[in-house]
Every structure is written in C-alpha cells, then in structure tokens.
Sequence to fold (317 residues):
Amino acid sequence: VEDEYSKPQPDYDDIITTLPVGDSWNWSLNLYKYQGFWYTSPHLKGVISARQRFKPLDKDVILCTYPKSGTNWLKALAFSIMTRTNFDFSSHPLLTTPPSTCVSYIEFEQAQGINARREFPLTSTHIPYSSLPVSIISSDCKIVYICRDPKDAFVSWWYHANYFYDKEPISLEKAFDLFCQGIVLFGPFWDHCLEYWEASSERPDKILFLKYEDIKRDPSYYVEKLADFMGYPFSLQEKADGCVKKIIEFCSFETLSNLEVNKSGKLGSVIVDGEYPAKIFFRKGKIGDWVNHLTVDMANRLDRIIEEKLNGSGLKF
Ligand code: A3P
Fold:
C-alpha cells in the first residue's frame, strides 16, 4: 500500500548545508544548529522527516526526554504500565529487548518508516518541544517529559559520547565547556527542559513533567501518577496485589542492567556505522555521581548558567 512511509526519504542536504556548524565532540559527524538546537546530520534528517511524516496514533503517549536523563527507565516504566494485561513478567518483551528498542524513537525508526505500525500507542523522542511535529501538538495525544540534574546528565553524556569518538576520546573538560556553551546533541540542555516545562505549565492535561530524582526518591507515587496520566490507572485490586511494586522492581536499574540483553545486546546506531552495546544505557543509575567527576569550580559554573537560564521559570534542579 502506497503511504507516506513507502515514499523514499529525501536527504535534506539542501537544508542542512546552510546551517551553522558547531564542535562535534570528537565524533566524525558535524553538529548543525536547526531551530535553535544542535544535531548531527542523521539526527536532523530524522527530525525534519518526522516533522513532515509522523502521525501519532489515537491515544498515543509520547515519551520526550533530553538524552541521558532517564529515557530508558521511563520507556521501561511506561511500556510495563501500558502492557500489564498483555504480558506477565516471566515472558515480558523487556526480558529480551532493550527498552530503547522496545519503545521506538519518532526521529529514528518512526520517521524512517521502520516499525512505523506500532502494536501499542507508545513512542518516544528527543526532539525539543518547539520542533515537535505539528501533528503531535495539534492531536490529543499525551506527552511525558523527564529531566535530570544537568550535572548528572552531563557526566552521563560524556561517557556516552566517548563510545563514538573518531580519532580520540573527548576530554571531560572540553566536553564540559561545550555543554556549558549549549553545544551538545539536542542541546542546549536548559532550553530543552524549559520549553517542555513551560508547555506543561500551560497544558498540564497534555504534558506531564517528571524529574529523574523525584522518581528515584518516591517511585510508587510517580509510577501511579504516570499510569493515571497515561490513561492506564491502577485499580484498587492491582494496588492491593502489589502490581505497582512489581513494575518498579522489574524496571529498576538493578533488574534491567543485569538482564543478558542489556549486558551483551547490541543496538543499531545512526551515529556510527554498525552496532553499539546496549549496556551504554546502563552505567550507574545514581543521583549525584557528578561529584566524582566535576571540580567545585565546574559545578559552580554550570549551576550559575542553569540558574540564570531558568530564572523566573519556577523550574529548579
Ligand atoms: P548514568 O550514566 O548516570 O548511570 P538515557 O536512558 O536517557 O540514555 O539515560 C541514561 C542514564 O539513566 C544512565 O545514567 C543510566 O545508568 C540511567 N538508567 C538507566 N536505566 C535506569 C533505571 N532503570 N533506573 C535508574 N536509572 C537508569
């Protein structure tokens, strides 16, 4: 059947070659600035294509995140909540599929027509709010955003980025300086968070804004809140049966990071040719690991930038 997805994808080079270029974090791909945010060309092609082609499903839930803020955790939680009557934990898809594959990305698989016909109304994206496809904004689908302390998100990014270096790894200091300038894939970090924060203040029924640290501290409260918001509330019977607790345990860092599929599995990449390890998404899973990496001066510098950028918004880390 001829549809949007069976048409060949244009390469969008005419758009990309006109864009400002930024330091690429020692990757072999440039970063380009498009609508105020930085992308490599494969990411950007996905974003532009998604803006032109993506159509949400009826009752879609879209998980939106800045990278390294808990995307995989949120994917596992939302997927387990949504499919809890379809699967039990002994034969669950997350036992054999990494969360990043289990829930597709709009700008990768969806925009390219891969896995476009989804079984469940759940997908995800790193696209900033202001660049989301209009089809999402104008639909009645729900958006869940998760953000994280920028110092921890940065440290996690630095490890992640160094899986893809071209000639040599990027030093922590150089990566930090670029992060503080806002030059980072899908960055600036603060604009990404702020846009979703403001949109969720305006439309709290459409956008749920979550923080990694809050879920860590009180998982039961936030998992119930997430289920309510998604339209899959837990019944009294389910709560009495410990269903919330089971989902939290199943999606915990300890459980997921110890599954064989997440220890030795491989994922496809748009950044490098070939595959990269699924374990890239399961490093430490802790709050505050930045203290083991950043000097006091570095932490103060980023804190000051974030304070200034978020000033008056009500959003705090
Ligand atoms: P660290 O590098 O600080 O350990 P993303 O999924 O957005 O790429 O984010 C990855 C970060 O989330 C990594 O942080 C990773 O360890 C952490 N993470 C992955 N699964 C998690 C889970 N189930 N619970 C808590 N944190 C998790």
Summary: DSSP finds 16 helices and nine strands in the chain.
